[in-house]
Specification:
Blueprint (H helix, E strand, L loop, with lengths): L1 E2 L26 E2 L2 H12 L34 E2 L6 H6 L9 E2 L6 E8 L4 H6 L3 E2 L6 H8 L6 E8 L2 E7 L9 H5 L4 E8 L3 E7 L2 E6 L7 E2 L7 H6 L14 H13 L5 H4 L4 E5 L1
Length: about 280
């Protein structure tokens, strides 16, 4: 462990977490994943063959929730994706093909996580995420204001889009807590897209088993039971090149293009803006 510079002091988004004596200033916050980042760097320097680096079947992503490893290839604090607004930069990098998923600046500037589960009702992902039903539907603004209250818990909002139920969360990524991906994906397919101050992450799981997951800034290092399962799709999306090095559509943008092309998942701005079924994780 060693000091690294981060943009935001950990926990400053939550009143209940804002205990100054527990957190160093933002400019000297400790990176608890220094060893992991160093290992990934060394692995990358050994050469990118296009195949995954040997790794444990499941990466312990819950350990990364309060740390952030700097990466030049990952955009800082990207926002929500939308079918209706794709930046020209992403479209040009992806041969002019405009997909449904894209970074839409200004919607969630502090980060987001979203979980898609195929062919289940919107309430099901919330239940599997361990959430208690809220008293009424919430807009994004309602959910964020609720989280700022003392001991309010984390709020996730759920809906349905094109045969996929989704659960979206501002700022944080409860889906990366230990054991959650397995619970959410039992009996179905699950795609999780994360872009928070702590970590960007992609995960694909089927029937309780994480098949493939990776940091979109370093897609040549993959984890899961079949880490190369999505390799061809990753190349098609421009996330990784044929020789295994970084592709033309990098970081979170590449992750979103992959999700759109391979799984046809997306979340229209007008859908996300509505008051949605809400759940609270204590």
């Amino acid at each position: 462990m060693y000091p690294t510079r981060v943009a935001v002091t950990p926990g400053c988004r939550r009143i209940r977490s804002c205990i100054p004596q527990k957190h160093p200033p933002a400019s000297t916050a400790l990176c608890i994943c220094a060893a992991i980042a160093a290992l990934q760097y060394v692995s990358a320097q050994l050469g990118h063959s296009g195949c995954s680096v040997h790794a444990p079947p499941a990466f312990p992503t819950h350990l990364l929730q309060r740390a952030r490893a700097p990466s030049d290839s990952v955009p800082v604090q990207p926002a929500l994706f939308s079918r209706t607004s794709l930046t020209a930069t992403v479209a040009e990098r992806h041969d002019g093909v405009v997909g449904r998923c894209a970074v839409a600046g200004g919607v969630l500037p502090q980060g987001f996580s979203v979980v898609f589960a195929r062919d289940v009702q919107p309430a099901e992902p919330l239940a599997r995420l361990g959430c208690e039903a809220a008293a009424s539907p919430m807009t994004r603004e309602d959910a964020e204001e609720h989280e700022l209250e003392d001991d309010a818990g984390e709020v996730l909002r759920a809906g349905e889009c094109d045969g996929w139920a989704f659960a979206i969360q501002s700022w944080a990524a409860h889906v990366l807590d230990e054991g959650v991906i397995g619970s959410v994906s039992v009996g179905t397919e699950m795609v999780a897209l994360v872009s928070t101050a702590a970590i960007p992450w992609f995960s694909y799981a089927v029937n309780g088993e994480e098949v493939c997951s990776f940091d979109p800034g370093m897609p040549w290092i993959r984890y899961g039971s079949a880490p190369d399962r999505l390799l061809l799709a990753m190349r098609s999306a421009g996330l990784i090149s044929a020789d295994g090095s970084a592709g033309t559509v990098r970081g979170v943008n590449g992750m979103l293009v992959l999700a759109e092309q391979e799984f046809r998942v997306g979340l229209a701005r007008e859908v996300e803006a509505k008051a949605l079924l809400a759940g609270v994780f204590p």
